[in-house]
Design brief:
Elements lengths: L9 H8 L4 H4 L7 H24 L19 E2 L3 E2 L5 E4 L9 H5 L5 E4 L7 E2 L8 H10 L15 H9 L6 E2 L2 E4 L2 E4 L1 H13 L2 H11 L5 H19 L4 H69 L19 H45 L2 H4 L2 H22 L3 E6 L12 E2 L8 E7 L2 H38 L12 H12 L1 H28 L5 H35 L3 H14 L1 H34 L17 H39 L12 H7 L11
Antiparallel strand pairs: 1-2, 3-4, 5-6, 7-8, 9-10, 9-11
Helix pairs in contact: 3-13, 3-14, 3-16, 7-9, 10-11, 10-19, 10-20, 11-19, 11-20, 11-21, 13-14, 14-15, 14-16, 14-17, 14-20, 16-17, 17-18, 17-20, 19-20
Main location: membrane
Function: Choline transporter.
Family: Belongs to the CTL (choline transporter-like) family.
Amino acid sequence: MANQTAPGTAESKQRDNNPMSDFNLGKRGCTDVFCCFLFFVFLCGWVVVASLGIMWGDPQRLIYPTDSEFRRCGVDQGGYYNFSKRPYLFYFDLTKCISYATALGGCQTTQICVEECPSQYFSYLQLRTASAAEIQNKMKNVVYCTDDVDKSTVTTFVALQSLVQRGKCVSYTVKSVPVLQRCFPEAIFNAVDNVNTVLNSSNSLDYLKRTFGDDALIPQDIQITGQSSEVMKSVVEDQPVTHKVIHDLSQTWWQTLILIFAAGMLSFIWTVIMRLLGSLLIWLSIFLVLGALGFGAGFSWIKWNKLKATGAIDDYSFHPAFDAYFEMPTTWFVVAIATSVLLVIFLLVILFIRQRISIACALISESSKAIGSMMSTLVFPLFPFLLHIGVFALWGSIAIWLASSGQEICRMKETNGQVYNTSTKCDCNAKLAGCTYVGIEKESDTIFWLQVYNLFAFFWLSCFVTALGDIALAGAFASYYWARDKRHDVPTFPVIRALNRAMRYNLGSIAFGSLIIAIVKIIRVMLEYIDHKLGKSENKAVKWFLMCLKCCFWCLEMFFKFLTKNAYIMIAIYGKNFFSSAKDSFLLITRNIVRTVVVHKVAGILLFLGKAMITLGMGILSFYYFSGRWVVEGVPKVDLYYYFVPIVIVVIGSYFMADLFFDVYEMAVDTTFICFLEDSEQNDGSLERPYFMSQKLLEILGTKNEIPLHTK
């Protein structure tokens, strides 16, 4: 009790004014408890959904292609249907499968079993002026339709168009190849085959050598494309390319890991560079833009004056050569006016926000210091990353079980050996004589809503994991900013302490914020699903309205992500509930909107430069090493089948490492910025309310503390 600070003293007021002091941290309590309870109940519901999927589903059913009526391709179900000569699955419009809506109701396009995949490019519009005989020929050999269409009766384009609009016949086909008994566009594989054909031509290769001269440079580049073609052909022709890839990975795994680790080290070095040279890089970028605009304006005015002096005329009628428009004086006059206006505007903006740019540079420097003093922040993102993998695996597994759910239907053969819809049902597991499998009966509506629940659970839990990581990092960086003495007052294990506070007090607030994002996401998916269901609706107003809704909800999602991220930072600082934190952070940012925009743009430029340079640099380095162009003394050279395989892994891994580091850096900048704004508004530099910002920030603001704090 002897060391307890007396109330009313300057020291006690400083303690109360520090939101991260032990005194204020000790006063925190649980927030948004109801949302935490709701989240727990929802997870229990997810367990029920998973149980139903496991009881009803059989993932092996997805291995075999089935048409829109759940009939297996390549199977003879005695009398009920005979697809023994139709082993391949054809999608009317494969592009409709690339959507979140596929996770809800399956691929939203008609699927039929066919004897062979399309062998040519075709559009039904080609038959607009065709004769009845031509249409009959195309209907027989090219046009794919559902089984309930009698193609022999289609003799006019109007009849075919009606079938296409009703989804009974395909509107177009592309040349396709069967992969896993499913038809996929051959163009995906054929592009590299065409390149390979050119490369195998001695004339083409000799021409390249004669043109470029350096005989040592061309073959390696050609070898990459040739190997790519070999890989793609092997995939299509089911050759054992996998064994070769596994061999290459087993030979290069340790070099690959070293290069990815080196990318991580470079990312850390970049954070140090941003601390030392961040201001220089930003101002250099600004002057380069000013110089480019100035050069463009000057060149355009000179060009315009020269063309006017030579008597050039304007003629903006159609010209096959686009360069002709740049020989007209008005073209350069417009360009000169535009670049001059942009130059003046950009220069005025820079003059107006120059102090804010200096603040942004100082905040970036402070963020680098915070990361440097808390190295655990760079490792922590692996924890939420592993959680994200687990959440994705759970969602994917449940989605597969649900998609494969349904009751197998078996019926007894009639006396004639055939099976009909009216035949007596029998137990598929009883193995009775004459009991024949005929298909799967699904509760489509039930499965659909279970898939909706599953997808919503994926969104909510993913956003929850992201929010938990954000609050933990924000709490760590806030503890650094609000420390009086940066050398001694920053707590040990700051990330673990912040994570513990978040899990102890703020799980409800995290659930609340992540619920908002999840709701917007699921609405966007439902809109996409409705759009797919409408298909080629003639009601243009409805399509336009849906497009506007999708755009609005995308913007709404971006806004809520920004709002919730800043709310999480305020929660980490003050420990308040989500609504209060979101309101306080939003009002704080709106009062400092120009500073906010400048800081985010400045940080965004530096982070983009870092990601681009690290990923590109490691890609070039790995290319020279794995292709054998760069030999490291003492390291044996590896012989690979496809040396671009480890290169791709290194590039992806390098980007991931850079993104991992810079996500931490971005959170450091955002947290430091919010703390700086709070510090600026709540404190005045007096003995009772001293600033916690660095001396450099104080100098930029033109203020100071009565008693300097230890900020180094």
